[in-house]
Write a structure and sequence with these properties.
Elements lengths: L9 E5 L7 H8 L4 E5 L5 H7 L4 E4 L13 E2 L1 H6 L4 E5 L2 E5 L2 H12 L9 E4 L3 H12 L5 E4 L18 E4 L24 E4 L8 H8 L3 E3 L2 H16 L5 H18 L1
Parallel strand pairs: 1-2, 1-3, 4-6, 7-8, 7-9, 9-10, 10-11
Antiparallel strand pairs: 3-5, 5-6
Helix pairs in contact: 1-7, 4-5, 4-7, 7-8
């Protein structure tokens, strides 16, 4: 065990979790309890300090809020500016960001796409977008433009980003059950090569369907979801998970989503 406690329980914390595949994914990755914990913002610090959990994943809106509660923060998470994985050590909570690993897998391994020297646009500026931007920088991408409703580059400023080579959709718009919605139409772009949507349910969002119609590389966020959980599990248990297990989990969760929707 990587943790310095006899308790071996883990979970996902967030304000409103709804349905999550995280318990099922972690059940496929290791033999440890993993549950969901909805925490009110006013109770976040108390929860972190008093919980008996050995480790936890962190989702909206707490990826930045937990950082001051960490004794140590991993260098990558510091650069990103958010934490999505906590593990208890003898000196307190250690924070990591495994969204970074998940996104790199999604682009480099799943889609086999090379971003080096290419211009990209990130739609949205939340915690996931921060991890994406850091990962793209480390992957050698060229200019990266972040577009959001509040700017400084807004969706109306098309000339600032419509020549992008690839697009990363990092907003919740288009998530089930609103799969027919999109923050933008691909018609505003001159001729991008690829679209990466961090949403995994539905598997083909509105923007991915547009990309499919244009014959573009079009990848959803399921592999990112699974691999960020894999890296978190490795941190929790100090146990390397092989690529074959990753592919098995991807297949199982994809089938589950298709049957459920």
């Amino acid at each position: 065990m990587l943790t310095d406690t006899k308790i071996s329980k883990f979970g996902l914390i967030g304000e409103k979790l709804g349905h999550s595949y995280s318990p099922q994914i972690h059940a496929l990755l290791g033999d440890y309890p993993y549950d969901l914990y909805e925490v009110d913002p006013s109770q976040l610090e108390r929860f972190i300090k008093q919980t008996e959990l050995s480790g936890m994943n962190v989702t909206i809106p707490y990826k930045q809020a937990v950082m001051p509660l960490c004794a140590v923060i991993d260098e990558a998470a510091i650069r990103i500016g958010s934490v999505n994985t906590l593990v208890r050590r003898s000196d307190g909570w250690h924070g990591y960001n495994t969204d970074y690993d998940g996104f790199r897998f999604m682009v480099e391994e799943k889609a086999r796409y090379q971003v080096h020297g290419k211009k990209g646009v990130i739609l949205g500026n939340g915690g996931a977008a921060q991890a994406v931007r850091t990962a793209l920088g480390d992957m050698g991408a060229g200019e990266i433009v972040t577009v959001s409703r509040r700017g400084p580059v807004c969706y109306e400023d098309e000339n600032a980003y419509n020549d992008a080579d690839f697009i990363v959709q990092a907003t919740p718009v288009g998530m089930y059950p609103d799969g027919d919605r999109s923050v933008i139409s691909l018609d505003v772009f001159r001729g991008p090569e690829a679209v990466f949507d961090l949403i995994y349910n539905p598997s083909r969002t509105c923007i991915l369907k547009q990309a499919d119609e244009r014959g573009m590389i079009a990848e959803n966020g399921l592999s990112m979801l699974v691999v960020q959980a894999v890296r978190a599990s490795e941190i929790f248990m100090n146990n390397r998970i092989d690529d074959e297990r990753i592919q098995t989990v991807l297949h199982v969760i994809e089938e589950t989503i298709q049957k459920g929707r």
